[in-house]
Amino acid sequence: MRISSLVRPKTSKPCRCKDVTRRAVSTIRQVHGQWQAPSLPRRKSLVSLVTAMTFIDTNHLNLMEPRAGWKGRFFHSQNMTLAYYAVAAGAWIHDHSHPNDEVWKVIDGELEITIAAETQVARPGCAVVVLPDTAHLVKALTDVRAIVIDYQRRYSIGGTEL
Known about the structure:
This protein folds into 2 domains: 46 residues, no CATH class; 96 residues, Jelly Rolls, CATH 2.60.120.10. Helices cover 14% and strands 39% of the residues. A 6-stranded antiparallel sheet has the order 1-2-3-10-5-8, covered by helices on one side. A 4-stranded antiparallel sheet has the order 4-9-6-7, with no helix packed on it. Strands 11-12 form a two-stranded antiparallel ribbon.
């Protein structure tokens, strides 16, 4: 199957990620000869088989709560971890640092983010870049939806294994 066959023309119905992901994973398995037992969790097989053209419907990923008030759905590409968060107003993450580049993209709501002792409020449309090994803390001023991307991959967040 060619990659172009996974993209629907603009005149057709919207893409159903679940169906496209299933077809992409099937194709990847055939191309790379990586046949996996059907008993393996779907999340594990998707994480290990993400390619340049994989569609993931994040609404079907397991919901985790690595910190109180921080509910997220996580997946990995080859080198990055992506988190889709729904954060309750007042929830916060303590001052910490890690060896990953981290980018925050606020979709809805307001986050107060302190990076290296400088505090700003991030609103919809705002992106925040946290460099590796830089102290930062985050507090939700309102209910928030945000996407957080870490490079290199993270295998745990807040003590929760991903």
